[in-house]
Amino acid sequence: MATLTIALMDPPYESETTTTAFRIIDAALRKGHRVNVFAYEGAVNITMAEQAPHPNPVKGTDVDEEDHPTTKDWAERLFRISEGRLDWINCGLCVDERGAGNWIEGPRRGGPGDFVAWVRESDQVLVIPTKRP
Fold this sequence. Notes:
Strand content: 15-25%
Oligomer: single chain
Order of helices and strands: EHEHHEHEHE
Structural class: alpha/beta
């Protein structure tokens, strides 16, 4: 079993990077690996519990027809399949700055020192930065 640490920075729904990270995390967990996720900057909003699906008025679809998963739904699913092999830290500095509290069950508060410790302990580290214009 290898340990993979992933640092995410993008907030939910801003780009495809969160979806890509979810796919990598899912694949690693399904292969029996341990995964650490360090959510930094806007990524601390990925696990906020109040997220809700919505209809799409442009397409004229209701909530059920849209079947729009939220990032907290994806994260909850990853925790369920992880069997304890997923650890997720939301950067406390970023949480305070954004008022991003009330998460789903699983993530915990930490800081950049936790990320450094994970980097030292991990077999592989992937940092997915926020794209700046």
